Automatic annotation (TrEMBL):
<dbReference type="InterPro" id="IPR018076">
    <property type="entry name" value="T2SS_GspF_dom"/>
</dbReference>
<dbReference type="GO" id="GO:0005886">
    <property type="term" value="C:plasma membrane"/>
</dbReference>
<keyword id="KW-1003">Cell membrane</keyword>
<feature type="transmembrane region" description="Helical">
    <location>
        <begin position="6"/>
        <end position="23"/>
    </location>
</feature>
<protein>
    <submittedName>
        <fullName>Flp pilus assembly protein TadB</fullName>
    </submittedName>
</protein>
<dbReference type="Pfam" id="PF00482">
    <property type="entry name" value="T2SSF"/>
</dbReference>
<feature type="transmembrane region" description="Helical">
    <location>
        <begin position="278"/>
        <end position="298"/>
    </location>
</feature>
<keyword id="KW-0812">Transmembrane</keyword>
<feature type="transmembrane region" description="Helical">
    <location>
        <begin position="101"/>
        <end position="123"/>
    </location>
</feature>
<keyword id="KW-1133">Transmembrane helix</keyword>
<feature type="transmembrane region" description="Helical">
    <location>
        <begin position="129"/>
        <end position="147"/>
    </location>
</feature>
<feature type="domain" description="Type II secretion system protein GspF">
    <location>
        <begin position="167"/>
        <end position="295"/>
    </location>
</feature>
<keyword id="KW-0472">Membrane</keyword>
Amino acid sequence: MNGPLLAGAVVGLGLYLLYRALFPPRPGLAARLAAFDAARRRGQENARRVSPRLERVGGLRARVGRPLAALAEQRGWKLRSVRADLAITDRSLEGFLATKFLLPAAALLFIPLMAGYFALLGFGASLQFPVWVCLLLAALFFFIPDMQLRQEAKERRQDFRHVVGAFLDLVSMNLAGGRGVPEALQTAAGVGDGWAMQRIHEALANARITGQTPWQALGGLGEELDIAELSDLAGALALVADDGAQIRKSLSARAASMRSREISELEGKAGERSQSMLIAQMLLCLGFLLFLVYPALIRIMST
């Protein structure tokens, strides 16, 4: 019974997909608004001269990813967290969606190979077990890109926050030297050559080209990368942009608080690693005791 049911389900799914391809539904209000937002976002990216470090997608991934990205925009899927993670890791949405589609598809293509392998092992020619194994692998492969992207984005956000703390100190020192707020921000962003400082420098340079204020550019970069510290900094600069002394004190206090928070996080990580090392040492001691006691136990049990 399982074979006919599975075949009927596959045929029904194919007929449904064929019907939706021949008679697509009319886009609703959310889809039209999403398409309008996507067009405006593309215009803003062209105006800001998106960083050339962004991942270039070509070949099969481009052919698969572009229709998937267009479908997501038509459906009105915001994907804010995914877009922020992709922005901070310099990846494209098309490449990410193509990877999420191609990995499970590759797992499903192994169904005939798995069936032949189990047939050679003598488990029969049934497709039920190979199909379930490949479906589980496809589900696992579907979530692997999300986990990898989230982990990499978390590490890069930690590095970016560390750079923001140093950037605040540099801006405070430039303000103390008599520079204005825009000049201090530009000078501080041009000091470092790391990827995070370059992103800040590019945002400030593009703001000067497009006619935005520097704090608006920093706020937009904070929203794009999901860095709350940059958004808070932009709000603080917008409130006290005319008072240099007040800005200097505020930036110094923010930098000190960020450093203290980073120190507390590092101490917490060091404590966790110390506990893990202690557990590893206890396991080694236990194994050594078993190694010493084992001959005596064998001798006692044999007598």
